[in-house]
Predict the structure of Teichoic acid ABC transporter ATP-binding protein.
Amino acid sequence: MVLLSDNKNREPINQSREVVIRAKNLGVSFQTGYRKDDYKSHVFNLFKKNKDPRENKVVWPLRNIDFTGYKGEILGIIGSNGSGKTTLCKILSGILTPDEGEVYVNGRVSALFSLGMGFKKELTGRENVYLNGMMLGIEKHKIHEFIDEIHEFSGLGKFLDKPMKTYSSGMKARLGFSVAAFLEPEILILDEALNTGDLSFSRKAAEKMRELVTKAKMVILVTHSLRYAAKNCDRLIWLEKGTIRATGQPSEIVEMYQESVPERTRKPRKRLEIEKTNANVKERTVVKAENLGVSYHDKKDKFWALKDLNFDIKEGEVVGIIGHNGAGKSTLCKLMTKILSPDQGTLTLNGETTALLGYGTGFNSQLSGRDNIFLNGMLLGIPKEKIENDYQNIIDFSGLKKAIDKPVKNYSSGMQARLGFSIAATLQPDIFIIDEALSTGDLSFKQKASEKIQEMMEKAKAVIIVSHSMSFVEKICTRAIWIDKGEIVFDGDPEEAVKQYKLKYDQTKAAPKKKKRKKRRKKKIETTSNE
């Protein structure tokens, strides 16, 4: 059943199931302009030629929200960036108080917003498990009881005892989910928390969510992955412009949502409608790595995050970097942006590098989106005059016109991704590095971003993209480098790279099942012998 929602058409209540969450006429408002805690933004008025003349006004990011959540279900929430998904999650978890209406929540809520919220980068992963668990209201002895299971499930190995500043966004997502899922939540809210996870971990997380709802009360999952939502959720809520557009069976809601995407971005199979990138590769080398290596030291041992990397990137290439979480992809990006220095070998860059390392890198959460355009642009080394010239283009491309005067702390991760990409891409860098920064983008924006990347190849020297989306890599990239355990496994045609990568994953996934079948056969033989 699909229910189109409006004020006169409330969601029917199922009296036969236990109600865990009920929202009635829920609404949240904010006032545009600068708040008292946004005093820093006044400084950035100096960077703009003309002050925005618009008066302060009240905006409702959510209004007239009515829905019921039932025990034992995985409830998915989908919608474009800025539709109100994160705001709704913050209300349900008690971070925000509604300005109108009421919400009933029967149970203790554990919420994981984006990746690694609440983690301290100077502490190790293990220390952050305890810190994060206690922030969720879990007693220390309970965390200690589950620490080994959290470690094993996260798949972080030795990294659990490394500082979190050495983690990629995907590794933070793994640990954040593992903490939230294993510490026995009654209601688990995941707001785009799995978007940076690799294929293997996403499937593990889906299985864990199914297990959770048999023991706890319910799981609420916010995601831009429509396929993931359709496969793993029992019911979907589609939010649009702060209201519920429809609720119902996942496959039906997904189809309705996809059909709402503008015609130019749709294909019969609802995939990105964009031609494969045509490479115009030149002889000039833009990036050259020779025996490149990065190591981390602690009291116990020395660990190589990257070792003996050798590759050249030519002008005109779009290079995809693939691999599981913890493979070394983000470390390589940090080397190319000079955030890190190599411990061995050399890295030569011929051109100015602009990087988007995750969404919202360099944003000041207290400032508005407008002010962060200037702040972020200058952090990227762009002259103020160029930012002023491209200012309106950035706003237009981001699609955040209505939210641009809102403090970034109120943006969802998808909105931050839109703005971050729009700033970096519009300002036309020589070498553009994108590290998982589009993982939270909705379908429409991914289409625009894909087209923009291809357009940039006429002016930029090279684009380097870290992504867990294999279809994105196959379509957009002219070449793929697969990194595993800090070493290059494959370097060449993106379709062949993805094929080998998936093949290894399928073999890895099949191994535990084969082992289990072998154990069952052995047990059966022993039982028969005893009889």
Notes: The longest helix spans residues 494-530. The CA atoms of residues 353 and 479 lie 19 Å apart. The chain has a mean pLDDT of 78. The chain has three domains: 1-39+57-107+229-260, 108-216, 285-498.
